[in-house]
Amino acid sequence: MRASPIQPTVDFNADGEQHGFLKLPHSHDGSAWGAVMIPVTVIRRGEGPTALLTGGNHGDEYEGPIALSRLASTLKASEVNGRVIIVPFMNYPAFRAGSRTSPIDRGNLNRSFPGKPDGTVTEKIADYFQRYLLPLADYVLDLHAGGRTLDFVPFAAIHLLPDAQQQGRCEAAMRAFGAPYSMRMLELDSVGLFDTAVEEAGKVFVSTELGGGGTATVESVAVALRGVLGFLAHAGVLAAREHGGGETSGDTARTTTLLDMPDGTCFTTSEHDGLLELCKDLGDTVKSGEVIARIYDASRTGVAPVEYRARRSGLLAARHFPGLVQIGDTVAVVADVVERGIPVATNAATSVPVTAPVSF
Q1: Of 62, 100, 259, 322, which alpha carbon lies 20 to 30 A from 78's?
Q2: Which 8-state DSSP code applies to residue 132?
């Protein structure tokens, strides 16, 4: 296979703090010899594990880009054992456009792996991560949220894996993230996912869904910041960290609730276009058969709404956002509650939260 056209302006093997770009040549009407410049930070000190931290896999999700931009500007090599690679805006064209997919080729990066070095811009980005960055990493954290069309309770997530030992390592890292919720997530279609590429490479992988609606809140960013530090501490990469601010210090007692998505009955899919009325809020308890949404015909009045009922009992973990839906949209996701109130303890060495060891 041909080499990637992407060239880094940083040296991944050099000690210290480097801030540069993954430079992807891109000729277009506005710049004949232009390039897509994807920001990257590498912080390294000596030998040790490597953590790859990514955000902006989808361009309309902001907790990851905010938390990782903040980390890139504050983390020092003296705080690190090993290496941290930070890419806050993986699909940089999509991020700049504020859209889920790239405005250049409409590519959804999280459906483009393993990518192609001679493919579209999005496929070239996927190929570089697949063949050049993943081999460097021991631990991978990919920060997601719901973007403009979904909203979630804030959770860290893993998938069910065929390798029990790898599954256990991923679960431990998810618990170390210390989000309010921790999810064993079901993907309706895992083909082309960055998640799948990382897991098939045998790495420790954690993803998140930390909110949505195409924005970020003070609390969702705080969850991301705490989680990133907890993940790095668990990986053994974060040697020490002095920081202020209650949002990252882990100085209050917190807990996580363990959730599971065992099968497709967790999902409620719209079979109609119209105006959406959610009958439950995120985090509410849902009973099987209970009305969780109504969809009104927005083309005329006097027509009774279509009712959508939950196909299982559990907790409302995700919902469509905003108020208009189309046929095929996911209206709601109901997850099983495995256990509530798992303590999130504080790691004294780093002042970041890690959860008690509880398995699904």
Answers
A1: 62
A2: I
